[in-house]
Amino acid sequence: MRLGPAGGRRHRAAVLLAAAVCSTVLGCPGPAGAQDTPSPPAGVPRLDWSPCTTGSPYDCATARVPLDHDAPAGRSIDLAVVRRKATDGAHRIGTLFVNPGGPGGPGTVQVPQNYDSFPKEVRERFDIVSWDPRGIGNSTAVNCFDSTGAAEAWGRSKPVGFPVGAKERTAWIDAYEDLGRLCEKRDADLLRHVSTADTARDLDLLRRAVGEPRLNYFGVSYGTILGATYANLFPGKVRAMVLDSNIAPSAWTNDNRPDARAPTFLRMGSDRSAAATLNRFLDLCGSAPTSRCAFSAGSPKATRAKFEQLMQRLREHPVDTWTYARTVGDTVSSLYIVDPGWADLARRLQDLWQGRVPKPPTFPPPPPVAHPDPYLGDEQAMAVWCGDSPNPRDPAAYHRLEENSAQRAGDAGRYWTWSGEPCATWPARAANGYAGPWNKPTAQPVLVVGTRYDPSTPYAGSEAMAGELADARLLTHDGYGHTALFNNASSCVKTYESRYFVDGTLPPPGTVCRPDKQPFS
Questions:
Q1: Residue 152 neighbours by CB under 8 Å, 6+ apart
Q2: Prediction pTM value
Q3: What tens digit of pLDDT does each residue of 163-174 get?
């Protein structure tokens, strides 16, 4: 469930409180110039900041932490860390830590790439810090191949999107079983120490390393379960925490039962949520002229029928390498970012409808950091996800699960079912995981943000997160896409987030924010 969003677009959040106001709830801003950290106490990593590249506004550092927090004198690993200082140092409040999702999202790349998506007041008054979690990207990473060529050869050994038919199912299952064997042989200890709880303990060390008495945190997607884990491991250390596009803790842990009958994504309801989001995409597209949505057939009903006909056609007659399964996978992932993702998706679908190979996507330029393109193989996300969250262990069960999901969620159900199958043969479980409780009282309430039409983390997951935490307030984004933050779509959401981070003010119960504009409008 990696994000990979496009760069942030024009910020539209309203100006909030005067900077001179000092909150009695969350405390006063730190003094001007208090942005560089003194030597940390023993056991806390030292962050020696320096510009990531010449002239870059971002600073980079490396934190050394224990592989096993219960054995701090043993093996250590490195965490790559990035920082952008508050733009209004005179009114700086502190440091805001950000996890951009995944698992497997490299914060040292994705957060700089999406820096402008954060509310203006937050950028002014907080140093924004992110890191590549253990096992990921530029940190000590799970990498099960000897070379790039070997990783690419493995990728070619399995179907794209998900398997269709018995032959492809065998190839898929065999490929991921082989990957698990390679990973266990390469670094079995690392596989058992990349859990969400391990990363939450890393986060607390990073908090101490920058000199913060309590944590300010913004987590999206997988970052919400990381935030919830931190809040329950260190409940007295929470100053402000926003969790955007949530995974229900009970779904993540399978209610703390080790034997799972359904994979994590189906417990979450990702299949149903993706299907509902796809239907909204098709309805809004069909209500727009082709000048605004290239795939429009003139009405919602006709556009849904056109999509179904395209999927049936691609099952029998792929367009070059664009198979049915590849197109379904591309459709679901393209629903994450509404602008420009939805219009771009409509153009690709129309190309396929007309028998043309879609143009390759254009990606945003790399951010000015030292290593903007780290290795991000499937095994990095799997090590966290499969080690933490129970999934059915019989690969043969997934075809039946796929058919059941397809009955309720159509094509998206096939995609999300097989996304969980790699965990069936994954060789490691987390040595130090956390499965609850989730209701330990925190020093300050948590702000939970949920989007109605999210193709990955259903709105029900945000409702569940708000209910399972001890003290949380739900803010509803009556919009579209995966995460309100990276969609940068609602100035209303940004306004409430800013007020909360600056002085602790929560939105009124039941608050609903809407996008500033509708897709294809």
A1: none
A2: 0.93
A3: 999 999 999 999
